[in-house]
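Listing 4. Sequential folding, example run.
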Amino acid sequence: MKGDPMLKKNVGTLDRALRIILGVALLAGFFFNRDAAYSWLYLIGVVPLVTGLISSCPLYTIFGLRTCPLEKR
């Protein structure tokens, strides 16, 4: 078996784009709104950004979900 089964591609194109946009928006919120009381919460944007960039979501693997088409063998 090649690679880590937890990092198999399971995030589709639309899901991936939304995750990247959300992650970038939240991180931008952190940098533009640093003086807010809970601005550190914007850093949660790292999670959707990283899962979008690597096209793999560990929670999808745990729950058996996938939004990308099945690969042809």
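-- end of first protein; second protein begins --
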Amino acid sequence: MKSISINSITELPKVAEELLSFANGDKFFVFEGEMAAGKTTFIKSFCEELGITDVVSSPTFSIVNEYESKFGPVYHFDFYRLKNIQEAYDIGYEEYFYSGDYCLIEWPSKVEELLPESYIKVDIAITAETGRSFTFSRQ
């Protein structure tokens, strides 16, 4: 487990670099945190660390966005608006989750029973107006 606290959004690239190092080649990540904790904002920074130059935005309505990185495809999921588990089946979650490519999951509790056996969990906690605490762990 690793914990990092920041006081400003300008420190996110450092956190993204630390996460990539912590992952040590693992490519499946779940992001936990209350609404407005900064999950999507951090994922944008993490995607920059992966070399993505496309605009990274929340896939709230599309459920999944795909980006090209220097490491291959990166799939960014936001399951917040998922009405039921069948919707995950309908988008073909298995093809993404078990592709071996990067998968970044927001609101993983909505699809908990579908998550792979092992993954990197990123907990984001609000500590101040612009302060955040990040905890990385292996599940």
